Amino acid sequence: MSAHDIGTEYFRVVNEKFAELKRSAEKAIAQVPDDKLNWSLNEDSNSIAVIVHHMSGNMISRWTNFLDSDGEKEGRDRDSEFEGTVASREELLDIWNRGWGVFLKALGSLSSDDLLRTVYIREKPHSVLEAIERQMSHYSSHIGQIIYIAKQIQSDAWETLTIPRRKS
Questions:
Q1: Which distant-in-sequence residues (6+ apart) come within 8 Å of 52 by Cβ?
Q2: Could you tell me the superkingdom of the organism this chain comes from (predicted)?
Q3: In principle, which of 83, 114, 126, 137 could form an S-S bond with 110, CB 3.0–4.6 Å?
Q4: Is pLDDT above 70 for 103?
Q5: How far apart are CA 93 and CA 8, in angstroms?
Q6: Does position 3 have pLDDT exceeding 70, yes or no?
Q7: Which of 92, 88, 107, 81 is nearest to 26 (CA)?
Q8: pLDDT of residue 162
Q9: Average model confidence (pLDDT) for the chain?
């Protein structure tokens, strides 16, 4: 298998995994009542809405002009992503889809030839491969949080996203 073939396969797999993560979060969010989207355990914990704001802000900052500018854009106000609430499910999904749209468009525009190119995040150099894997880890962590919060809110009404316990 050539390096080009490996790169092509990598992009196939990583696009599939990101799409799977997005779907899982959306299935979890769909189970949460509108009035609980801003719920958090305590003042130092994040709500689903806050995590969505943060992920979207990160995606827009990191993936706008991905190959040509630092991933931490000057106009990004990261701290404000952790302060806000959303007024409606529609607003939450608009924020969510805006971030994913920027991210998936940029990811889809990359090719095997880009994997070893250098990009910058917070002025630190990363290969494109490393930057993608950094985001995989970051987004997976936050989607796990969204699912966990949704599961706690729904309690016994939770509908599992995978194979139910004792059903393997």
A1: 29, 86, 92, 95, 96, 146
A2: Bacteria
A3: 114
A4: yes
A5: 31
A6: no
A7: 92
A8: 85
A9: 94
